[in-house]
What we know:
The protein is mainly alpha-helical. The protein has two helices and two strands; from the N terminus they run αββα. It has helices at residues 8-49, 70-118, and strands at residues 57-61, 64-68.
Amino acid sequence: MEGSEIPPQIQEKLARLQQMQQSYDAVLLQKQQLDVELSETDSAISELEKPTAGEVVYKQVGRVLIKGERDAILNELKEKKELLTLRQSSLAKQEIRLKERLNEAQMQLRESIGPQTNA
């Protein structure tokens, strides 16, 4: 066996670590996208809550704007905000769990590599 060959156990730990890192990065990306969507929803809600009498309100459905009732659209946006907030909380918890698992896996990998570099 060559001195530079990586043992299968360490290769497996490294592969799991890389997979966890990819999952962590994906959660961070989802969280960023969710933050943007939540911010846009907040802006829309604040605009619709301004006192406006008789103004026409449209909502976007795909690439089409459809005329709608202000209160109904406002309620839809508030429900969407609730769902986004729940999703944001869920992603934050997932991020914490993944970060802890990632740190643990990194420590295990270092411990596995450590004794072999001294030999």
